[in-house]
Model the fold of this input.
Amino acid sequence: MSGSIGTSGRRVAWRCAMLAAALCLFWPARAGAAPKTDTVLLRNGDRVTCEIKRLQQARLSVKTDPLGSVSVHWGEVLGVTSPRVFEVTLASGDRYYGGLGWSGVAGDLVLTVGGGPVTTLKLADVTSLVPIGSSFWKRIDGNMDLGFSFAQANLETHWTVNAGATYRSSRYQLSSSVASQLTSREDADRTSRNTVSLNGSRLFTNQWLFTVIGQLQQNEELQLDLRTVGGGGAGKVMSRTNHRMIALYSGLVYTREQFVGEPVANAAEIAAGGQLDFFSPHNDDFSFTNSVVSYYSLSAAGRVRIEAQSAWRHEFLKDFYWSLNGVESFDSQPPDTQKRNDFSLSLSMGWKF
Done:
């Protein structure tokens, strides 16, 4: 009886944690619209009067009165102007601040302060535009997708939910994500897999960063009741352009894990990982993101854990996309009789904001 109560309690705790994480990701906020005083000049000759929201991953998001919020690939932009102050980030990692002007030369961006020109940059070198003074909510980007599959032969249903949100400022980046999978079959018990992750980074010059991480994991397929990971480290963005982003990082984490029928284990681990993302090279609205983190135990000699995630997304309608998600968990030394890895592949439909 006590074992069943403990399992039920853990499931309730996980549901509460997932709900709290979802509320943190998607708590609504009202934001007033800025005056439409910005201008975007496109390659086809169109001149759009709008409010520039941000440039990220080669997509320039703007808001117009007749069309609402729209986005355009950065490669289709010849010039932008705005009297507002922006933070402009280059592929080199250098940051500039000022109003946006156009010299009349296609592909040039003139930064202005007090109405006068300061410096001229190339649009092709610009990887990020963020209006200074934007509210907290306007600096957040996020997504949520849902997948479902059904097999009639054994009445198997498979649900997947993935959500994430990222806040960016001139010096800090905060990210959170939720990933949940639930599989049920007529001839077997339900199995679930849940992960909640939090990440905070302090950005420095030359693309260096210091990061702290926290993570909660549960995986019934691997008989993992709960794994808690917390720690920090340093990293560097090796390359950031309008087509790709490559980052490497390493650090030290403390891990506490509880497997079914096993005592609680605590260990210090060395963490090393990387991020490799690709974005739309032209007008095809797709992204391909990949992350992998390996953990090397300092107390159990030879034990290595690997967590890998990949997601391919293609936008088919404004702010809506198809997503193909792959997740792999590997443990070189799991408890006796337990599986060493768990891999899943899911197709889902999502919405980004």
